[in-house]
Amino acid sequence: MNLEQFPSKLLERAVSETAKLPGVGRKSALRLVLHLLRKDASQTHALADSLLRLRDEVKFCTCCHNISDNAMCEICSSDHRDRSTICVVENVQNVMAIEATGQYEGLYHVLGGVISPMDGIGPSDLQIESLLERIREGGVGEVIFALNPTMEGDTTNFYISRRIAALGLPEGAVRLSVLARGICVGDDLEYTDEVTLGRSIIDRVSLRA
To answer: What is the pTM of this model?
Structure first.
């Protein structure tokens, strides 16, 4: 059957709306919608209710801009986090990825994107001013830039670092760092690109015997 020859206008509308999701084409959307029709109605209602509640009730942390159920997220409100360290990330997915490692105990700051003139995204479109305000308030000893190692990510790192320097804080008051870049565990040198290999050599670490 041709995808455009829908037997029902309701089906057609459901497929059209589902296909608007990123990475979901019309064929995949049709499979998903038909799957929901085959399941018990309660499952579809539960899905619809969860999405509506997400849209209407979700909040963004007033401190770090992470997604939260409350005005302040669990990370920012925790008494067990290192409040002197802020990890700057692009989006909520990055927070989730870093948290999954179990290796970071500081706070976060979600920018909501990176500077990208080609996409019409400038510094004023990101949560940069609120980051600077957190640093001005004191108590921050290190800012970790955990943005993607792209031209846009590096541009954003550079811009924010310059803005922090312009705050006029005592020299060395706030350490700025970026995530280590180089060869991943298990990678083969033969297939590693020159930029990554070069960065690995520059950022080499001491070998502990």
So the answer is: 0.82
